[in-house]
Amino acid sequence: MALTSRPRPADPSGAAVTSGAPLRRILAEDLDAVVARDPAVRNRWEAVLHPALPAVWTHRLAHRLHRRGRRLAARMLMLLVRAFTGTEIHPGAVLGRRVFIDHGSAVVIGETAVVGNDVTIYHQVTLGAIGWWRDNARAPGDRRHPVVGDRVVLGANATVLGPVTIGDDAVVGAQALIIDDLPSRARALAPAAVVPVRDDGRRQAVELLRHTASAGSW
User: Fold this and answer.
1) What is the DSSP-derived secondary structure letter of residue 96?
2) Domain residues of the chain, as ranges?
3) What is the pLDDT of residues 68-110, one digit of tens each?
4) Which CATH class is domain 23-187?
5) What are the distances in angstroms from CA 174 to CA 4, 36, 125, 150, 184?
């Protein structure tokens, strides 16, 4: 049986593309982002041992290999880092500068996804496609995955599917499912837990963590 290949997706462009910047500077910024956004990390030495940082750093290299046509080598790096960190970032995906992935477990970022600068991603986040039953019918080169703007926060177990756009400074809360565009500074929060009815008959909604923990902070 002859092997077939699919047309290469269009190369994403915009402020998130970092291929022209010196790799050393980008890696140093990733390290500083861990120190700045993880309260459990005190300095750069501790940041080097952050569980998700190897996934981001390895992707920086794999993405460059992917852009140069060395797809197999890039995918091998992706599989290696996935085995160690639980984070799967397709080499074709574009990560902006100072992207911070906290914890890293079960994060999935698809091939045509574009992630902007200063984005925070918590564990179990998916930036995925809708499914092969729809994507196989798309025109060659069409985008299948989300574009995430600058300074976006993606909470734990948030799922963003399809070629949607998340505007700058938006917050996607924990457990939220996004299948449509979000404007800049939007807040997309899943329903919070509700305290059962008390003896006096009053029902109290849990509001304290709605705008903080629902964004994925642990």
Assistant:
1) -
2) 23-187
3) 999 999 999 999 999 999 999 999 999 999 999 999 899 999 9
4) mainly beta
5) 39, 21, 9, 19, 18
